[in-house]
Design brief:
The chain is mainly alpha-helical. The protein is about 75% helix and about 5% strand.
Length: about 170
């Protein structure tokens, strides 16, 4: 079916497409209005804290060229252990809905760094320290996974030990 629009003929499909384009033009504003700004705000605030802490550790504990990047390695392992603790605590407690985005995504996401890990590997390889780069490449995810697991197990145990014991029935 053909429609005349402003002196131009259009098919129904073309007209439908034009309406879709007009609707899409309005969607970004609607999307922005529907965003969870409180969550975005706490993630940004937490990210600033975590990134500043990581930067400070890197400045205080610089990595000489061609050596194992202990600062980044340590930051990533500590961050993974803390995320293990956080996830257990959130699981067992009725935490506020903004705790996980603030502490997990924000602070710990800003604190840990996959990008620096990747750059460190590239630098080690390009400086003819490929074995050290390979060691770092393998050790980091293994240590990170172990840190999450160990921290979660220890935290669950601590939570169980500190939980109030059910009162034993009085035998009369």
């Amino acid at each position: 079916m053909m429609h005349v629009f402003g002196g131009l003929e259009r098919t129904a499909a073309q007209e439908s497409g034009a309406r879709e384009v007009a609707l899409r033009a309005r969607r970004p504003r609607q999307v922005l209005r529907g965003l969870p700004w409180d969550v975005i705000g706490v993630v940004a605030a937490g990210g600033a804290i975590g990134a500043a802490a990581r930067y400070g550790i890197g400045v205080a504990w610089p990595t000489p060229p061609g050596t194992f990047p202990w600062a980044t390695f340590t930051v990533n392992i500590i961050g993974c252990a803390l995320i293990g603790v956080l996830m257990v605590l959130i699981e067992v407690a009725s935490a506020h809905r903004l705790v996980r985005p603030f502490a997990g995504t924000g602070i710990l996401g800003g604190f840990t760094t996959f990008s620096t890990y990747a750059v460190d590997i590239e630098r080690l390889v390009s400086m003819s320290a490929a074995r050290l780069g390979l060691l770092y490449m393998v050790a980091t995810p293994l240590a990170a996974l172990a840190a999450v697991w160990i921290a979660a197990v220890l935290t669950r145990g601590a939570v169980r030990r500190s939980a109030p014991k059910p009162a034993e029935a009085d035998v009369g």
